[in-house]
Amino acid sequence: MDTRAPRIGLAYGLLLLTTMCWGANAVAGKLAVGHISPLLLTQLRWLTAGLVALPFAWPYLKRDWPQIRQHFWRLLAFGGIGLGCFNAALYSALNYTSTINVVIEQAGMPMVIFALNFLVLRHAARRTQLIGFVMTVLGVALAVSNGQLSQLLHLDLNRGDALMLLAILCYGGYTFALRFKPPMHWLSFITVICIAASVGALPFALWEGLRGATIAPDLQGSAVVLFAALFPGLIAQSCFIWSNELIGSNRAGIFINLVPIFGTLFSIVLLGETLHLFHVVALLLVLGGISLSERGKA
Q1: Strand runs (DSSP E) across the chain, as ranges?
Q2: pLDDT tens readout for residues 219-240
Q3: Rg of the chain's alpha carbons, rounded to an integer?
Q4: What main location does UniProt list (predicted)?
Q5: Structural domain total, the chain
Q6: What is the tens place of the pLDDT at every residue in 66-97?
Q7: Domain region containing 84
Q8: 1 lies in a domain?
Q9: How does DSSP assign 62-116, residue by residue?
């Protein structure tokens, strides 16, 4: 009897819930446009998530305080870059590009994780992984160029797509680095990095205000903050961290390719966005490339 089966099944369930929440996150970000500014949304989202988690995490925070103090700067980087910068870039991108483009481009994250595992840990890449990598990059490029790859030759890229590239690099690096997180309870960890993300996003929110670009949340904006804090934030991040502990970053990262599927479905149903043929082709390339990469993994 394989004793790993329940562990793997739990990880798959956690990752399914995670990617559903993240697919909905892009839709929530689109609904926030004009109702709350993106950098203020990022800051309030993580502040809310940290405050909600704090009462539940308090006993573990007291127990893990020596680890928190010892690894303060690492934890600040986890929250500031992995959560704060990622979401600031994602929510800003939604002001310039479509929700479908955003969720498809997020499928490039597993390739960032593979690349970092190879460059830093020297995990060997097989031929099938390299072919899968090229397929995935082609799919993301197809989405970014709105089905016209020739635009890339002229660097005719949308500002939102450039911001999503930054977001992908931030979260891909965060996922890879989770293997180096301090030995502490997951509730302690998620609470600390939520607060760190809030602190890291504060200067950006202030800069937004100094530019006169701040939009104070109305009722819809406040609802988006609460939803983003609880579901794509606290619940999804906790599930993702837990699943990484169960099956590792490479295998968990593969599931991020489900984000464009859920995000595209939610965008069409809830926002009425149009699904074009190049979106379908891009999705198939991304999913096929990642599947091929996983099949050829050592």
Answers
A1: none
A2: 999 999 999 999 998 999 889 8
A3: 19
A4: membrane
A5: 1
A6: 999 999 999 999 999 989 998 888 888 888 87
A7: 11-295
A8: no
A9: HHTHHHHHHTHHHHHHIIIIIIIIHHHHHHHHTTTS-HHHHHHHGGGHHHHHHHH
Q: How many beta carbons lie within 10 A of that of residue 151, not counting itself?
A: 15
* Phi, psi of 126, deg, nearest 5: -90, 170
Model-level pTM greater than 0.85?
A: no
d(CA 77, CA 72): 9
CA distance 226 to 204: 20
Contacts of 194 (CB under 8 A, 6+ apart): 46, 47, 49, 50, 53, 79, 83, 233, 234, 237
User: Does 2 map to a domain?
Assistant: no
Q: Which amino acid appears at position 86 of this protein? A: F
121 within 8 A of 294, measured Cβ to Cβ:
no
Residue 294, token pair as written in the block: 């996983």
